[in-house]
Amino acid sequence: MEVSTRRRGVPVHGEVDPERLWLTADQPRTGRRPRHSRAEITAEAVALADAEGLAAVTMRAVAARLGVGTMSLYTYVPDKDTLLELMIDQAGGDLALPPVTGDWRADLHALARAQRTLMHRHPWLPAAYPLRRTIGPGTLAALEHALAALAPTGLPGAARLEVFALLTGFVASHVGYEVAQREALERSTRSAADLGAAQLRYLTAMAASGRYPQLAATLAEPPAPADPEATFERLLGRLINGLSP
What we know:
Blueprint: E1 5-7, E2 10-12, H1 18-23, H2 38-52, H3 59-66, H4 70-73, H5 80-92, H6 104-121, H7 125-128, H8 137-149, H9 157-187, H10 192-207, H11 213-220, H12 228-241
Helix pairs in contact: 2-3, 2-5, 5-8, 6-9, 6-12, 9-12, 10-11
């Protein structure tokens, strides 16, 4: 049995029933006339997470944004685990899926770029993705797209599912790093250029000690472009090239 735990404000749970969540009517679990919809409630929760981070999303905070009592919110959404499932799926439904061209490498590149854009729009998503198994309509649309994009590889369906998971995991990890770096710089009193120069001086000094010959050789090479877009494309290319069937 999975035990609920928390990391970075993200509830971890394995008991959300997808059949009850996605196939039941969008109405309160009591007989009262509905004042809100699940989509409305979820949109408020997503907006709160976008503005203040995932840890700020509580049933009380979302209820306050809607102007209702906390207990009334539970008639639509039974717990925070379920709310997070709805949030991930609603945000995932905003993914701008590119057309499938038949060139699976190009299609994976385009999908990963779209995922990166989405995760920067909702910077809480990278932390939420690894801890959930969301399979709502928004998520399934991206999954269907990836399966179609990978069809020319001839890989069996299970392998294509694994490739999609690898791709999404890479993008989530990379965007999570980008978001963390941005937030760290916002809190720092030093500029990114200043911090980068200090790091380079340190590494150069360590390389000069003779204890790290591979590092010294690497530092002697022309540096890779520091542009975030170029870095993402370079790393993504290495990942996709390694996926060749």
